[in-house]
Amino acid sequence: MYRSKRIPCVLLALGIPLASQAALAGYSFEYENLKGEINLTAGAASVTTRGANFGAGAVDVRSLENKGSKVGWQEAYLKPGITLDYSLSDTLSLLAGASAVAAGTYGDGDAGGFTRSADNCINTEEAYVGIRAGDWKFTAGRQNYIIGSGFIVMDGNLDLFGDGAYWLGPRTAFKDSAILAWSHGPVQAQAFTLRTDDHYGDYRMNGVNLDYDLDGQVTLGAMAMKVDTLASKRSNATRRDGMQVYNLRALRGQLPGVPELTLNGEYAVQRGGDGPLEYDAKAWYAQADYQFQALPFTPTLGYRYAVFSGDDDLADNTQKAWDPLNKGFVDWSTWLVGDVVGNYLLFNSNERVQQFSIKNRLTDTLALGAIHYQFWLDENNFRGAEVDDRRFADETVVYLDWTPNERFYSSLSYNWVQAKSAAKQAFGDDDRFSALELYFTYRY
């Protein structure tokens, strides 16, 4: 299953919190009852990997050609967009929005073998209409949607093959979607129906989501949805007929008297099943971050433990391995867990991850950070092949983020992965798998 996305959303690729999106206005205009905004986002990246697949080499998914253990490539994209708001009265407005993405991959193609040199495409990204009436808002068409931190639902379009730009992943909109949202004070609720692209397996998610801001101390949330595959049964798409997904979460939690400490956690299960396959999977995490505000560079120390269940019996009719569905990318490690492991090896299924992090604010525009991950398999198999030990790998990243203003973001990182018992057995080698990454995004 292809489940990795490095930067699936332009604004989130900037590492900017969701609440900051409104501040990043493009060119605004207004004429009588009509107002709108025209914006443009650009991104580019250069990535060089060594020891791909621990020395076994990167394999092109389409041709099965081994490209060798040294792979270097570049990616770029442009995304122009427009939003419109036509006021019918003080409480009633008509809404519309559209955007397109032009993206491509160059060089050797990515280290996962999902794109090749000259894979490129121009696609419609967003194209929706809607209406706002008081606390209610309804939109339909191609549009973006995120639940919580993007742990399960955020990215509806996987950038594979001819799309280009797999690592940057600029396409995120769900197609054939409709969202009915209600917001009043601390409460936000949505009923939604979302359809993914073919690369994800062409399935639909119907559900409801609720968020409650408890006096700024914590945001509590709950989600329930049903998943059904729309792709033809003659296709090789993964079937998810009748899957039911339930999620509880507590985000941005603050303890009284300890403002430096931030707590996050979620728990989710997958149940049900309308066909021969039943679902019995779970995923959860608990995270704590503490910022030392009195120390130079105000370092933030973090710890997270995450579990994505695996399957102990691949031959029965019950799927116990967690299906990551449409996870997104918000910031380092969320929810691309390990820039190398998460992009090319494990995709938030059948894994347990212990994560240690530190981030220092060197100046107002420079941040220096490091993250160390320890990976285990949840069950003793890797991509269906039995392994003797669950200890998979360790990954470490050191990164430097430069944000001279709210519109421009760039990052330079070095990531290296050391194979442990399970990875050595699965790949037959234990070379260091490393990646040197440089990228930027700019939004006007």
Secondary structure layout plus pairing:
Elements: H1 10-13, E1 27-31, E2 34-50, E3 71-87, E4 92-107, E5 120-133, E6 136-143, E7 174-184, E8 187-195, E9 203-214, E10 218-229, E11 243-255, E12 258-272, E13 278-279, E14 281-291, E15 300-308, E16 318-319, H2 341-344, E17 351-361, E18 366-376, E19 381-382, E20 385-386, E21 391-402, E22 408-419, H3 421-427, E23 433-443
Name the features.
444 residues, mainly beta, Porin, 3 helices, 23 strands, 3% helix, 53% strand
The CATH topology: Porin
Total DSSP E strands: 23
The second-level CATH architecture is Beta Barrel
H-E string: HEEEEEEEEEEEEEEEEHEEEEEEHE
Shape: globular
Q: Give Rg in angstroms.
A: 21 Å
Keywords: Signal
Organism: Phytopseudomonas argentinensis
InterPro entries: Alginate_export_dom
Protein name: Alginate export
Q: What does this molecule look like?
A:
- The chain is mainly beta and 444 residues long.
- The chain has a single domain, classed as Beta Barrel (Porin), CATH 2.40.160.100.
- 3% of the residues lie in helices and 53% in strands.
- It is built from 3 helices and 23 strands.
- It has an 18-stranded antiparallel beta barrel.
- Strand 8 and strand 9 form a beta hairpin.
- The protein is globular, with a radius of gyration of 21 Å.
- The relative contact order is 0.14.
- This is Alginate export.
- InterPro entries: Alginate_export_dom (IPR025388).
- Pfam families: Alginate_exp (PF13372).
